[in-house]
Amino acid sequence: MNAMKNEMGPFCPKYHRGVELIGRRWTGAILRALLSGISRFSEI
């Protein structure tokens, strides 16, 4: 679990896995970053 936590950073692994089932691999992670207030691509 710690390896997954380090790999995913601040994002919930369950959230990321769920979004992978629905859409493209990074779409969920990008949307999550944008919803948290990040507004520039270089900050993602």
3D architecture notes:
This protein is mainly alpha-helical. The protein has one domain (13-43). Helix content is 59%, strand content 0%. It is built from three helices and no strands. The protein has helices at residues 2-8, 13-22, 27-35. It is globular and about 25 Å long. The N and C termini lie far apart (23 Å). The model has no long low-confidence stretch (mean pLDDT 71).
Write the layout of secondary structure elements.
Blueprint: H1 2-8, H2 13-22, H3 27-35
Compute the separation of the termini in Å: 23 Å
What is the 3D form? globular
Number of domains: 1
Low-confidence stretches: none
Average pLDDT confidence is: 71
User: Tell me about the biggest sheet?
Assistant: none
What is the H/E string?
HHH
Number of strands: 0
Count of alpha and pi helical runs: 3
- Give the C-alpha Rg: 11 Å
Class from helix and strand fractions: mainly alpha
**Percent range for helical residues?**
55-70%
Strand coverage percent:
under 5%
Multimeric state: single chain
Brief digest:
This protein has 44 residues and is mostly helical. The chain has helices at residues 2-8, 13-22, 27-35.
